[in-house]
Structure to design on (133 residues):
């Protein structure tokens, strides 16, 4: 017989209890700020829901692009390397276009992480609220 999910998660929740009590005062302090921001979040909700199909369509592409993103990242850590020719720094195929490419990838991944957090993490928090109230 399989245990319900609640009993599987219970040991982890017990381990996290001390951390919860450390964070609780901070959460209580942040509560007024949350209520100030809540109307804005409610206003943004329809727009966020409209973006969900686009996120689902883009996810496979982002997964395919991830290895390329990882390969490109080390190029930006060589900022003061003397081996670069001066023409490489100013040419269209040089570091300027690489920097723009990095900004593009960074923007895509930040937006994706935001959407994953918004659509995956927040609903899970809601489920925990339902379980424990």
């Amino acid at each position: 017989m399989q245990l319900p999910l609640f009993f599987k998660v219970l040991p982890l929740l017990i381990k996290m209890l001390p951390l919860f009590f450390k964070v609780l005062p901070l959460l209580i302090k942040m509560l007024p700020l949350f209520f100030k921001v809540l109307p804005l979040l409610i206003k943004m909700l329809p727009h966020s829901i409209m973006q969900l199909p686009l996120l689902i369509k883009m996810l496979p592409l982002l997964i395919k692009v991830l290895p390329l993103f990882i390969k490109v990242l080390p190029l930006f850590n060589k900022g003061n390397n003397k081996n670069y020719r001066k023409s490489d720094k100013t040419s269209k195929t040089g570091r300027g276009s690489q920097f723009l490419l990095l900004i593009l990838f960074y923007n895509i991944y930040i937006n994706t992480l935001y959407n994953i957090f918004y659509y995956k993490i927040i609903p899970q928090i809601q489920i925990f609220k339902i379980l424990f109230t």
